[in-house]
Amino acid sequence: MMTTTTKAFGLFGCIGFFALAATWALAQHDHTMSPYAHSQSAEFATLTPDEVRELRSGEGMGLARPAELNSFPGPRHLLDLKANLDLTREQIALIEAIHAKMKTRAIAKGEAILQAESHLANLFAAGRPTAAETTRMTEHLGIMRGQLQAIHLLAHIESTRELTAEQIERYDRIRGYRH
Asked: How far is C-alpha 90 from the chain's CA centre?
């Protein structure tokens, strides 16, 4: 004779089994569809729309993280936090100039990277990528990406020179780097 507890356990056990089986079946989804399939019609198939936007706008894209995490604030964030950091008019003017120079250089380098990415994609689209040309283009892209990172890192170094130690400490606290 089955008790109510045994019946309930059996019912929940069956539900659990079917839930587990359904989860396993969903996890075994079709791996034949590429995550790149949606990129074929994009302006730059090799980059996400966010990457293209960031390259065109001169945004940092996390490239200055080594500076940011080690008490070398960047100009954009300094300008955003100027009131919290009690930046003087002179500091603001200098940091604005650093930011403008960085942004101009970063946008130009971003456009060059986009052109190179397009050229690389076109080599493959035309069905004629050679090992030599592919190597040359990817090395060129690597150099340009390094140059873009240097543009952002150098702006952090320049900006930090305009700050007091107390402003840097306050910046780090506000940004959550030091407690």
From this structure: 32
